[in-house]
Amino acid sequence: MALEQFAPAGVMIIIATILAFIILVISRIFGPHRPTFRKNAPYESGMKPIGPAQRRVPVRFYLVAVLFIIFDVEVIFFLPWAVAMRDLGVYGLIVMGVFTLMLIVGFIYEWKKGALEWE
Amino acid sequence: MEFNFITVAFIVFSLITLGGAIGVVTCINLFRGTIWLMVSLFGVAGLMVLLSAEFLAAVQVLVYIGAIAILFTFAVMLTRSITSDKMRFTRVWVNVISAGILFVLFALGVIYPVWVANAATHFPVTDAGLATTTDLGVALVSGSQFVLPFEVAGLLLTAAMIGAIVIARDADDEGN
Asked: ipTM, 2 decimals?
């Protein structure tokens, strides 16, 4: 694959970067910036905060992230197979079927165990 | 060194990679450090594109920036007080020395095979005749190549999924 094919992606990255800078800089220049202690409080003109705001995050987040990584890696395995699928034919479909079957076993376990539910 | 578009892109992506890495190690706030890590990983993805490794670049963006950096973020959130700005890291010299040793080892690992050993065969080749994503897909399911590692990888992913559920849910039950 030639490098020129990445030109659209490069253009998009450049435009997105410039746009982000423009938005930040313009709002910094033209917007009033007069912070006070009251304004910087977590709840402006609300109740006074009690105790630290940082609570312990439930371990459930970790589980979701790990499961997401695993499914992400599965997608990465599917990708080259999908690109070459027409050439591989039925044989490729069977090989990928075995691969998918093993992952479905894990998926069913996950489902039955309730790991997908957010109590 | 000829000065063309690829050289400029290489310099830009190298600066992004190294700048992000410096941000990671100098940030006191670990949460910001993970954001810098994403910047650094993105630079590496750009370098992979320049080396005609598009699939690896896609993997880098999808898996490393999209998933592993998120896992890092959650891991930082899971630790109780490490995200606060008051926490200072004091063992600087231990880290400086170990990072220096690691840097020398990695530098030797790059320099030795490319320049000292047989330079003609080890130098990275970036012209036509490289393996494409289609070749990779064929190789993954081909019986004479990587079909067994491919299926074993599926088994490994399943084991990782079950292991994550077992560990996280046990920890969850203890918390209740």
From this structure: 0.71
